[in-house]
Amino acid sequence: MFQIDRSANRLRKLERTSFSEVGFREREHLQEWLATMPDALCEAMSEGEDGLLIIQKEFDGFDGTRERLDLLALDRSGQLVVIENKLDDSGRDVVWQALKYAAYCSSLKKIEIVGIFQQYLDRHGGGDATSTICEFLGEDTLDEVVLNDGTSQRVVFIAANFRREVTATVLWLREHQIDARCVKVVPYRFGEELFIDLQQVIPTPEAADYMIRMAEKDSEEKSAKGELRRSHQTRLAFWTEVLEAMNAAGLDRWQNITASRDHWLTSSIGVAGCSLVLIFVRDEVRVEFQLNRPSASENKWLFDQLIQERERYEQLVGGELEWRRIDEKKVSMVVCKAPAQGYSKENWPEMISWLVERYRKMDKVFSEPVRSLASRMRLGDGQVRSSHD
């Protein structure tokens, strides 16, 4: 690396040094730098926009072993990223170590990943793991998000120098479509100032693009068998059967609605922003009466009127309901739900029957009262009031 001397119009070479020479340690320094500034690593890997979310450091939650991996992260696709840091030399066993950690992590379930991250947040400033992951992935909820599908953990090796046996192994792993990378981190000194340079050396940025294109070409035949993910195909098939059942039951509102790959279907009740929504996720089905008008105060007012007769409404529906005012959001809702093994098709007839029946009851119980309440509402001075006030 060189510094530009503008006044002399010359380059001044920065002195390459070593971490040991300047007194830096792996865990106290390099690991901490990357944990607090993962963007530095992302920039080195040309992933500045994608980013990484560090969810744990010194992770030792492996059954039957006391080994600890340096950093554990999530990428934007919900895959786990194992990051192994070394300082001046990669060592001979770093690949074997990291592959063990990747194998250990392959069995981590979504709830475990969220728990691991929550522990990390609790130790480092607080926060809610679920909402932070949702924000990072750009999702409203984790219900339908797949975290760590168990087949494509990523591995990143970081060191100032990589031994030949390490680079050869990493290249071999990449040939077998395992996303392993080497990032060189080199310290420099200029007077009293210290700098570090992070650069991905395997694969080089140009080679990375080429290898991605080749991997896409190799998987083209598999991708051609279906553009939708398995979950999308499952939802599409499920909603097709639900709509057939709704129409067979004479529920006319559903005649012009088509099946979707989303986890919900919506039916209006004739009041703007108020609807009955069917929800299908892996472990439950729901019917939600959603109050989602443009004005949050209108939604809260409608909700407050309905909940005054909570006991009567629950008796009419035939079961306990969840009353979600959700003060921090615009929407409010009343929810009827049932547990289900949703991705097992043998359960679908019972689930669909439940949805049809609960939808019919929720419609009968709530739609007319909400239409009546909405006709009385008016907005004035930022408050929702009845026209009879």
TrEMBL record:
InterPro entries: DUF4268, tRNA_endonuc-like_dom_sf. One of its GO terms (molecular function) is nucleic acid binding. Residues 234-369 form the DUF4268 domain. It holds the Pfam family DUF4268. This is Uncharacterized protein DUF4268.
